[in-house]
Amino acid sequence: MIIFKKAADIGIFLQQKRQNNPKTGFVPTMGALHQGHISLIESARSKNDLVVCSIFVNPTQFNDPKDFQNYPITIENDIDLLEKAGCDALFLPAVEEMYPAGLENKKTYALGYLETVLEGRYRPGHFQGVCQVVHRLLTIVPADRLYLGQKDFQQCMVIRKMIELENLPVETVICPTLRETDGLAMSSRNMRLDKEAREKAVEISRTLLHIKSSLKAGDLSELKTAAVEQLNRTGFKTDYVEIADADTLELIGRWDGKQKLVALCAAFLGEVRLIDNMLLQA
Ligand code: PAF
After folding, report:
1. Quick check: CB of 24 below 6 Å from ligand 1?
2. Ligand 1 centroid to residue 217 C-alpha, Å
């Protein structure tokens, strides 16, 4: 695997490769890689000639400075995992490389409804930061396919919207969430959980599973309230448990028994904020 730190250098590399017209799969990450990320690399590997990964802890998508400071960094291990998974190139830029005009002069994206609900509501500015960085990355690595994890359900929708707004010629491939054996969704933030918090963390996926198995047409408010109460009893400070239309993210209070639904949750265990989601009819 070749490691590039400069946009110009990976640009030259990709230009040279382009002579053979390869299909390029791109996996953007913030590092602290786990099996979930590696499954994205493996999906990209199985469908493309060239697989590129990026590791960049993007300052503009953190609305909480403490979360940014505490974001885990495990670069040696990341490189090792990527090499084993057959990644061809890693882009590892510094902030100046990603934001050459500085952090103040940033583009804004007309994301509409998508940035007013759920993560958008609780993390103001977060999705603008995600779009800024993914747009810039796709300019540097003009991939045929972009690989994203379903774990960040709303982020996948936001990035698709940005791609549509910017008319970028890239296909998004959404890969299923990978879970630990007890059901906890894999996440870089899990590394920050101590033993006691790690044991409690599984309650998020249990709660989503409970919603899935209890779902009935009609009013959903009791189901959602009971889920928040259950998480708070376990020791979480819950931002939200919501049930939404899986295609539009419209929040659903009454279910007609047909609409395709997703349950989504965000909750703090101490200082660590965990998110998860589950398609309810899958
Ligand atoms: O999901 C992530 O790790 C990040 O939000 C992404 C897509 C790499 C952008 O920084």
Report:
1. no
2. 35
Ligand 1, from 58, 109, 115, 175: best to mutate by most atoms within 8 Å of Cβ?
Answer: 58
Token reading at 136: 């810039």
The H-or-E segment that residue 45 falls in is helix 35-47
Could you give the residue numbers annotated as active site? 37
What residue ranges do the domains of the chain occupy? 2-175, 188-275
Which CATH topology does 2-175 take?
A: Rossmann fold (3.40.50)
Superfamily per CATH, domain 188-275:
Pantoate-beta-alanine ligase, C-terminal domain (3.30.1300.10)
Query: Which residues make beta-bridge pairs with 145?
Result: 25, 171
| Ligand 1 contact via 134 beta carbon (within 6 Å) | yes
Which tokens hold the place of 72? 């885990």
- Rounded Cα gap, residues 161 and 60, in angstroms: 19
Please report, in tens digits, the pLDDT of each residue of the chain (282 residues total): 999 999 999 999 999 999 999 999 999 999 999 999 999 999 999 999 999 999 999 999 999 999 999 999 999 999 999 999 999 999 999 999 999 999 988 999 999 999 999 999 999 999 999 999 999 999 999 999 999 999 999 999 999 999 999 999 999 999 999 999 999 999 999 999 999 999 999 999 999 999 999 999 999 999 999 999 999 999 999 999 999 999 999 999 999 999 999 999 999 999 999 999 999 996
Q: Is the pTM of this model over 0.90?
A: yes
Q: Is the CB of 130 under 6 A from ligand 1?
A: yes
Structure tokens at 139: 């300019």
Backbone CA torsion sign across 206, 208, 212, 214: positive
